[in-house]
Design goal:
The chain is mostly helical and 339 residues long. Among the domains are: 151 residues, no CATH class; 48 residues, no CATH class; 33 residues, no CATH class. It has 14 helices and nine strands. Strands 4-5-6 form a three-stranded antiparallel sheet, with no helix packed on it. A two-stranded antiparallel ribbon has the order 1-2. The protein is elongated. The N terminus is likely disordered.
């Protein structure tokens, strides 16, 4: 049976080959070569959308309203010869596109402002390559803006005050595009961009409780609810300016608490009271790597302290302030008694 079956199959194949007629070399026919090189319908549609995306990214109006680094990242991404739309299909946004869009719509839950993001309609059916390209770009720009804001890019700390000597740990938009492209859930990726510090997490929980109208701590908020909510959001924003990773060992000076902590593996191993500035001479806020520690350092009063605090009292003969704070005085580098 097996031989008979095999013979029958081979006979049928040979007959089919004979019916097809004599073969012609493909190289002899330019029409055949052109036919093989012609893209499929899907490839042609994709190419048309990519072509319009590239064209729209050059639009002066678009460029005037969006971050230059975001636009440069999109130009590089879609300028690739193998580029294809990330979020849009001829039937509208893909499931991943909708996942990213819905997460951005919930930006208020993270202390951001959902109204700050220009999103495309979630369920509209595009009318062709031009509308597909416009939808793709709008979602792209919203994603990159969200990624920047999640890392503290809404504001520039140093422009707010010279006290804030901080630079938010922003993600490179090119890296964001690559990572969200391969992410299994775009919404989960966007959530992962927010700070993971315990303090930020607790602030967000407090914000969600206020938004939900509940207070699990049983403490009634005093004052205007909107003001309290704004304070929470402001503090969340300041945590966005912190380094994404503080490391296993760090020193944390908590200015509002007048306390300094040495933290190792998430636990405070040392705590002490600390001096802070005033409204007119505020303590600077910064993050930096520490290379050395000086124990019991000699502290020289800065000119602002001398002029505003010490000299007026010393001129009145009030020398007790020196003993109170264990100050010593020097003249030309030599110990000297004030008189």
């Amino acid at each position: 049976m097996r031989r008979g079956s095999l013979a029958a199959v081979l006979l049928f194949a040979c007959s089919a080959f004979a019916w097809a007629g004599p073969m012609r070399p493909i190289a002899d026919s330019a029409a055949s070569a052109a036919l093989m090189a012609k893209p499929t319908g899907d490839q042609a549609a994709t190419a048309a959308v990519i072509e319009r995306i590239r064209s729209k990214l050059k639009d002066p109006n678009l460029r005037s309203k969006n971050d230059p680094a975001d636009l440069a990242a999109l130009e590089a991404f879609y300028g690739n010869s193998s580029a294809a739309p990330l979020w849009i299909t001829d039937m509208g946004l893909s499931a991943k596109g909708q996942s990213a869009l819905f997460e951005i719509e919930n930006a208020d839950d993270w202390g951001l402002d959902a109204a700050a993001f220009e999103l495309p309609p979630a369920f509209d059916l595009p009318g062709g390559p031009n509308e597909e390209a416009a939808t793709e770009i709008r979602l792209d720009l919203a994603i990159l803006k969200y990624a920047r804001f999640a890392r503290g890019g809404r504001l520039k700390p140093r422009e707010l005050s010279a006290v804030f000597d901080q630079a938010p740990p922003l993600q490179d938009p090119k890296k964001v595009l690559v990572e969200i492209t391969v992410a299994s859930s775009p919404n989960g990726y966007l959530q992962s961009l927010h700070p993971k510090h315990e303090q930020f997490v607790r602030l967000r929980e407090a914000l969600l409780r206020m938004r939900g109208g509940e207070d699990s701590d049983g403490v009634k908020a005093q004052g205007n609810q909107a003001d309290i909510r704004q304070r929470i959001i402001m503090n969340m924003e300041r945590w966005r300016w912190m380094p994404a990773e503080l490391g296993p060992l760090y020193v944390w000076s908590n200015t509002p608490e007048f306390m300094l902590y040495v933290v190792k593996d998430g636990k405070a191993i040392f705590a002490d009271k600390t001096q802070v500035g005033t409204a007119t001479d505020p303590t600077p806020v910064f993050s930096a790597e520490m290379s050395t520690i000086v124990f019991n350092p000699e502290w020289t009063a800065p000119p602002s302290v001398l002029v505003k605090s010490l000299l007026p009292r010393l001129r009145k003969g009030n020398y007790s302030i020196l003993d109170k704070y264990a100050f010593s005085s020097k003249l030309s580098g030599q110990p000297s008694e004030p008189h």
